[in-house]
Amino acid sequence: MKNISRIAALGLPLFLLSGCFNAPSLITEEYSRMEAERDDALLFETGDSREIEEAIDAINSGRREETHEWELPEPEGTLTFSNAKEELVLTLFDDGETIDEYFVYVELDLE
């Protein structure tokens, strides 16, 4: 009985912590092109599916905070994902980017 309560005591925090890491993906579509712009100048562009997927994975797994009550600073630029059907434009900041109502802390190698 003592072992069961130890397992339960260890399992409960792990269960609660796992809920923090299972946030829904912010980007669910597949994209064939990614471009970053700063000051209306093209900073980075790629059609490499591996690089695009790495950026999407980093955004989807990055720490995020809701921005409902934020006063956001001046944006640094934009990050655009596109495919034949649609275009998704994210606002870039020094520490991350925004998507929907979230600020995602992520460092992307865009140079």
Automatic annotation (TrEMBL):
UniProt-listed PROSITE patterns: PROKAR_LIPOPROTEIN
Keywords: Signal
Protein name as it appears in the record: Lipoprotein
Signal sequence bounds: 1-23
Superkingdom field: Bacteria
